[in-house]
Amino acid sequence: MRLVFALFATLLGFSATACSDSKWGDNQPVTVEDVNDNIRSWDGQIYRVTGWLGRCEGLDCALYPTLDDARIVASDDYDRAVWSRAMDRRLGIASMGDFDDRAAPYQFQEVELTALVNDQCRGWQSGCTDRVPDLIPFDITPINPANEAE
Questions:
Q1: Does the predicted model carry a pTM greater than 0.85?
Q2: What's the rounded Cα separation, in Å, for the pair 27 and 138?
Q3: Cα–Cα–Cα angle for 50, 93, 56, rounded to 5 degrees
Q4: Could you give all domains of the chain from N- to C-terminal order, each with its CATH number?
Q5: Residue 94 near residue 133 (C-beta atoms within 8 A)
């Protein structure tokens, strides 16, 4: 419920503040690493985030800094330490409406996600499992739509 309220409150204020936000207004996308490094101070703000979409279905959907990280997490063939490091570098994407259907064609491709940054699962006394909402998605577009991922 907290997530729904936060999203609703943010959307109400978005129309009045979107043009004044430097990240939103300057049309410069940020990276997965940028968001991870600044998630506390960017909480509640909308950014265009570039990264590699991993598997996006059911209880798992995330944006990764590299294609290798996305593949490692999706595979059962890596040792636990390698898998854990890849998981630590990712940003979870919340389950919102038909997002999974819209994202399905872009799995394991480089994408740009317009999303609200959310730090609710990053605190000392908080934690989330499964579909971690580090990013609350609004839109997704492929970076190189003509090129297929390897």
A1: no
A2: 16
A3: 90
A4: 2-142 (2.40.50)
A5: yes
